[in-house]
Design goal:
By secondary structure, this protein is of the alpha/beta class. The chain has four helices and five strands; from the N terminus they run βαβαββαβα. Strands 3-2-1-4-5 form a five-stranded parallel β-sheet, sandwiched between helices. The radius of gyration is 16 Å and the shape is globular. The two termini are 26 Å apart.
């Protein structure tokens, strides 16, 4: 990825995994642009060591077209961890379509930034715990 001192982006920075990622990046000397739907939910990150000097929190909504345009200017890499999540989605499309469309929105914005060398999209256990309609079905879901 990038070297210490470089600027990197983290979508969904207020989330559990992303919060730990932001902490580790700051600890290793990176400057971080974190996005979240509500800056209020990410305020706890400002208490991390080095956050006041090297963390910028930006509000952006995955599902608003163009919300990420310009957010990652100057970044060398982006960790795309944000994804809509509902404990009880009505059907698979309630979860899959917003995740797909939100990711495409982020990827399009990243593609327009020449300095970005890599976009990393981790997965989650949540991708396999929903959607199995048959309790005895052992077919992989992902």
């Amino acid at each position: 990825m990038a070297s210490a001192g470089s600027l990197v982006g983290v979508t969904g920075c207020a989330g559990f995994i992303a919060g730990h990622l932001v902490a580790r990046l700051l600890e290793r000397g990176y400057r971080v642009v974190g996005t979240t739907r509500s800056a209020e939910t990410a305020k706890y990150l400002l208490d991390l060591p080095h956050a006041r000097e090297r963390l910028k929190i930006v509000e952006a909504d995955l599902l608003r077209q163009g919300d990420f345009d310009g957010v990652f200017a100057g970044c060398e890499g982006v960790f795309h961890t944000a994804s809509p999540f509902y404990l009880r989605p009505g059907d698979a499309d309630d979860l899959i379509l917003p995740a797909r469309d939100g990711s495409l929105n982020v990827y399009r914005s990243c593609a327009a930034v020449p300095s970005i060398k890599r976009v990393v999209t981790p997965s989650s256990y949540a991708t396999i715990i929903f959607g199995q309609d048959q309790p005895n079905d052992r077919t992989p879901y992902t």
